Every structure is written in C-alpha cells, then in structure tokens.
Amino acid sequence: MQWKDYIAAIAEKGASQSQIAxxxxxxxxxxxDLASGKTREPRHSxxxxxxxxxxxxxxxxPKTIKPSETTES
Length: 73
Fold this sequence. Notes:
Helices cover 55% and strands 0% of the residues.
C-alpha cells in the first residue's frame, strides 16, 4: 500500500480531503498531492499524524507504509 491508497482508504470511511487535512494539521493541497501520488511520502511528522487519523476512521495501519525519515513534503 502506498500513501495515496491509505488516503483513499480514509476517504472511503467518509472523510473528505479537507477533513483529513484539518485533523492532520496541514493544508488540503498537501492531502490532495498525497492522494494523487504527486507527493509520494509525507514528512515524518505528518505521516505519523495521518496514521493516527486513519486509525480514528478504522483504517488499519498497513505494514507496507510508515512515516519516512526524509523531509520531503
């Protein structure tokens, strides 16, 4: 699973990109870039928050994605 798939899984549970962004503390454009694959990896801190947001919506944390140690945003 890639981050874009993880964002899609959260959206399938009823969250809009705007809602995900608000809960993650980032801009909707950041979530859009992740959802489209334009950005492949969020920065580490955002990745951790997105995993928590996903858990709130009942999305299991896949073993194939984890917050990156890089600073790409």
